[in-house]
Amino acid sequence: MSHDSTAAPEAAARKLSGRRRKEIVAVLLFSGGPIFESSIPLSVFGIDRQDAGVPRYRLLVCGGEEGPLRTTGGLELTAPHGLEAISRAGTVVVPAWRSITSPPPEEALDALRRAHEEGARIVGLCTGAFVLAAAGLLDGRPATTHWMYAPTLAKRYPSVHVDPRELFVDDGDVLTSAGTAAGIDLCLHIVRTDHGNEAAGALARRLVVPPRRSGGQERYLDRSLPEEIGADPLAEVVAWALEHLHEQFDVETLAARAYMSRRTFDRRFRSLTGSAPLQWLITQRVLQAQRLLETSDYSVDEVAGRCGFRSPVALRGHFRRQLGSSPAAYRAAYRARRPQGDRPPTDTDGPTGPSGPPLLHPEAGPVPLQTRRTAAASAMGPAAQLSASLPGQRSGS
């Protein structure tokens, strides 16, 4: 899944200025960046594959700071160019940033701002989105990053419209991708945009990857979360919600438990997680349904009831929107992949919640309050970003 903005005709029509050339791609590397993400644009734009029908780009590898640059496994790299070489590029790619909690070098941010002002296309792969955000290039724009870092990006840069569902987002002159392999998806998209489907298809065949991947990041989401959110008082409300997913309650119930008005609760929840409470709640119900489909023999109707959906129809609709398949098809595909002899646990395999579903895991025992708070804090993470695309609808409907 990708997002192609149609709201930026100005950006699409911008012309390169000065010495910049459309076919020149500058890749901006920093010390501490992961080698996989760094190698993606080098492989896509730096190898001559004209024999396979792929138009050639001119690659400039630039150091965003003084070298040598350390990368995965203790390797040291020496970039052949410095920041000055970015002035020739029509496209500038930031494949990764070493830490989502530390600011990038100001000299590199200035170079990116200048490149954007002069009409260059700016691309951030995975955590490279944090560099683009620090430069102010994502303000007021849609963007994505690895689902695990999406809440931090949304919290640190509230003017960025973070959407962790997407594999990549094309907003005309500024593009971002999710983690690792999604960087390949975005680079193929750039080739497709520049040179058409045939060129992108030829490159995909050489890389032995699909030319387009369907779906988004939803299937990869779990409850991981940057630790900074764990101490927030709302974590206790989230803990209660996770324990009572089998009950039909709505956001007003959560706001009341937090002793807040609905408006204040919505604002506080969104500032903390980057997501609306309704979106988060529906996502948690769908995640719970996934687990029950994987680990139990409950019918789809029973799963719907044990996850707080008002009807099986509501479960099917939300499940398909978030995961791209029906609950029955998801269960069948999951079981087809399991080793023979495995069986889903039944009610006798472990304690469950007050009237049905497991509290946090199908095989978990009674969960201490502190553990529940920790798990709740985790649950307020990237999954909270998923949009149910149902404005105004109540969570249990």
Structural features, described:
- By secondary structure, this protein is α/β, with parallel strands linked by helices.
- Helix content is 40%, strand content 11%.
- The protein contains 15 helices and eleven strands.
- The strands form three sheets. The protein has a seven-stranded mixed sheet with strand order 1-10-11-7-6-2-3, sandwiched between helices.
- The longest helix is centred in the C-terminal third of the chain and has 19 residues.
- 46% of the residues are buried.
- The C terminus is likely disordered.
Descriptive key words:
globular, alpha/beta, 7-stranded mixed sheet, two-stranded antiparallel ribbon, disordered C terminus, 397 residues
In which range does the helix fraction lie?
Answer: 25-40%
User: Proportion of β residues?
Assistant: 5-15%
Give the strand order of the largest sheet, numbering strands 1, 2, ... along the chain. Answer: 1-10-11-7-6-2-3
Care to count the β-strands? 11
What is the gyration radius calculated from CA atoms?
23 Å
Structural class by secondary-structure content: alpha/beta
Distance between the termini: 26 Å
Query: Kindly state the mean pLDDT as a whole number?
Result: 79
Task: Report the uncertain regions.
Answer: 5-12, 222-230, 345-397
Major sheet details: 7 strands, mixed
The helix/strand order is EHEHEEEEHEHEHEEEHHHHHHHHHH
* DSSP helical segment count: 15
